[in-house]
Amino acid sequence: MQLETRDHVPLLTAMLSIAALGLIFSAVLGVIPTRLLPRSEWFIGLIPHLNVVISVIAIGTIIGGWRAIRRGEVESHRRRMLAAFVLFGAFLAFYLYRVTLEGPTDFGGPDTVYQFLYLPMLAIHILLAIICVPLLLYVLLLAVSRPVEEIYRSRHRSVGQIAAVLWLISFSLGIAVYAMLYVVY
Predict the structure, then answer these.
(1) How far apart are alpha carbons 180 and 182 in whole angstroms?
(2) Which residues form the signal peptide (predicted)?
(3) How far is 66 from 73, CA to CA, in rounded Å?
């Protein structure tokens, strides 16, 4: 498996990215039939709060992974970044479940705040999250398809640094969006 994956990382990244983004856009655009999902009102109401906790933990995990690799602690870096990827997956699964059944949450604040603060922040958050999908899949596939010594000769570090920064910004903006939807307004 490792040898087969190593030779096809860009292709696998493209295929997985298309599948993941297709699922995301299908949920957001209401293409997924709601009858296919069990409905749990209490869980649907819990998801935004659960996702903000996941986001905070993911930010800590990403920063911890970044610091670990700077100290040369490869195994700690690997564990933390895999944990961050799993947290991202959980966040996404919960979000897609909620948005498929409920649609997006309406902003309850003033129009001026909506137009000049909330909407641009939400747009950047969404754009970065979309950009992160292929970047994260790429660095993950590089990491799992190569021995550690070979990873240093791949694009894992350069792409990973970009992915981590965008990932941190996206998670942080997601927390700000949550605050505007559920705390401030």
Answers:
(1) 6
(2) none
(3) 10
Separation of alpha carbons 71 and 157, rounded Å: 14
DSSP 134-173: HHHHHHHHHHHHS-HHHHTTSSHHHHHHHHHHHHHHHHHH
Q: Which domains does the chain have, with CATH numbers?
A: 2-184 (1.20.120)
Write down the pTM of the prediction.
0.91
Which 3 state secondary structure label does DSSP give 116? helix
**Is 68:166 a contact under the CB 8 Å cutoff?**
no
Output the six-digit token pair for 9.
């990382």
Other residues' Cβ atoms within 10 Å of the Cβ of residue 82: 15
Nearest residue to 156 (alpha-carbon basis) of 167, 170, 141: 141
Query: Which residue in this structure is represented by tokens 């992160």?
Result: 132
23 vs 98: CA distance, rounded Å? 14
97-107 per-position pLDDT tens digit: 999 999 999 99
CB atoms within 10 A of CB 25: 11
- Within 13 Å of residue 8, how many CA atoms lie on the same side as its CB? 10
3-class DSSP assignment, residue 105: coil
User: Hey, is 125 helix, strand or coil?
Assistant: helix
Task: State pLDDT tens for residues 119-144.
Answer: 999 999 999 999 999 999 999 999 99
Tokens 């990403």 sit on residue: 62
